[in-house]
Amino acid sequence: MTSTSLEKAVLVVPASREEAVKEFGDGSGVTVLAGGTILMPEINYGRLRPERVLWLQNAGLAGISRNGSGLTIGAMTPVAELENGPEPLASTARQIADPEVRAQATLGGNLCAPPGGESPRGDLQAALIAIGADVRTVGKGGERTEPTEDFVASGPDGRLVLEVELEEPTRAGSAAVRRPHSHAFTILAVCAAETSKGIRIGVTGGSAHGVRARSVEQALAGGASTQDAAEKVLEDVELRDDALASAWYRRRTLPVLVRRALDNLEGGE
Q: Which pLDDT score, from 0 to 100, does residue 206 have?
């Protein structure tokens, strides 16, 4: 492990998973640096002045391993490596930003992305929620594993993401609205997947973080049509305005995206 001073901040570079966990501790006063695609602009523009930065580049937290139908994906795995993963994670990863950003950005960073002031963040959250992925973290109280929807709802404060575990779904579908731009901002996205526990729906872009559309899932399980079930999504998501779209637009668009994602699921796309 090496430590250096960068202006007023201390940069800590753990050389193993164990060192990363030890140096993170309970997270007090620690800013985690993964790919840096969100963090570094905040630091460069003076919006964030960290006291102690934990850089995970050499901590051994990257990589994808398979165990039967299950996958374990390390937090430092670049988004670009997810493009060949299971659906709908692969399709979602391919649509994030541009190739340069995808090569640098990480799974853990995307999971922990704070809400953007002008546009949504955390594009991977809907796919991970739909797949039923569990997030393993450490911090105050030790190690814990929880569903993606619970992790993003409670926020990453005081937690260090180590890895994500998931089971490959039998079917998957997705639909999204994006704004053409050099970084292809996602306005709203829906992912659907059929797992061993049934059909699951994840939404990003509508709220501050990814949301599981439980009302849609329950309606489908109860025998509702795709169209009727899709309308239920408005009960699950607290839509908001930002620089890309209004809450009104998202309210009109979201049920349509849910129907499309479910139609893709039914078609095996």
A: 81
The structural domain count of the chain equals 2
Q: What is 94-114 written as a DSSP string?
A: HTSS-HHHHHH-BHHHHHTPP
What is the DSSP-derived secondary structure letter of residue 59?
S
The CA distance from 96 to 183, in Å, is 8
If phi > 0 it is left, if psi is from -120 to 50 it is alpha, else beta; for residue 213 that is beta
Pair 80, 166 in one domain: yes
Rounded CA-CA distance 24/140 in Å is 10
Characterize the bridge pairing of strands 198-204 and 185-195: antiparallel
Q: What CATH number should be reported for the domain holding residue 22? A: 3.30.43.10
Q: Is 126 helix (H, G, I), strand (E, B) or coil?
A: helix
Handedness of CA 46, 48, 49, 55 (dihedral sign): negative
What's the confidence (pLDDT) of residue 98? 86
Helices (H), 148-231: 148-154, 214-221, 226-231
Name the nearest CA neighbour of 114 among 62, 39, 226, 195.
39
Q: Please name the amino acid found at residue 100.
A: E
Q: Are 156 and 249 in a shared domain?
A: yes
Residue-number span of the structural domain to which 32 is assigned:
2-55
pLDDT tens, residue by residue, 112-130? 988 766 667 789 999 999 9
Residue-level pLDDT at 265: 87
**Does the reported pTM lie above 0.70?**
yes
Same domain, 33 and 129: no
Residue 184's pLDDT is 64
Residues 138, 106 within the same domain: yes
Model pLDDT for residues 180-190, shown as the tens digit of each residue: 665 667 889 99
Q: What is the mean pLDDT of residues 23-33?
A: 95
